[in-house]
Amino acid sequence: MSIDAALSQNHPEIVPFSAAAAEGRFTMPTCRACARAHWYPRAFCPFCFSFDVEWVEASGDGEIYSFCNPAPAPGTNVIAYVRVKEGPILLTHLLDADPASIQIGGAVRVSLQAAKDGQYFPAFKLA
């Protein structure tokens, strides 16, 4: 799937993530100056404000930091905050999860999801 031209024009910071995700790789922007990964993608480091940011392949492993099941019904996705091994906490979805089996601190694994416009987003599944 190609990345939509409007997406790359309006949100250039997400293009490297979506390009890697289309190849099945989970990457995160990481600052070369302070060595910290961050999420959501941006052109500068939110910790030290350096513009020396590179995209580094991430493990895809994380743990549930917090979650909410706003519509508890079979087949619905649970909204969660997940802390990935590299440090950042992502607002995301837990896919195919039985709400009764979800626990704070539970292990999860990334599942890269494609949107219609060619953009990808990281969702997670219980590990």
Polypeptide structure, described:
The strands form 2 sheets. This protein has a 5-stranded antiparallel beta sheet with strand order 5-4-3-6-7. A two-stranded antiparallel sheet has the order 1-2. 21% of the residues are buried. It has a single domain (5-126), classed as OB fold (Dihydrolipoamide Acetyltransferase, E2P). The chain starts with a helix and ends with a strand. It has 127 residues and is mainly beta. The radius of gyration is 15 Å and the shape is globular. The chain is 11% helix and 36% strand.
Total DSSP E strands: 7
Count, helices: 2
Amino- and carboxy-terminal Cα gap: 27 Å
Give the CATH topology.
OB fold (Dihydrolipoamide Acetyltransferase, E2P)
Poorly predicted segments: none
Let me know the largest β-sheet.
Answer: 5 strands, antiparallel
**What is the CA-atom radius of gyration, in angstroms?**
15 Å
Tell me, rounded to a whole number, the average pLDDT. Answer: 88
**In CATH terms, what is the architecture?**
Beta Barrel
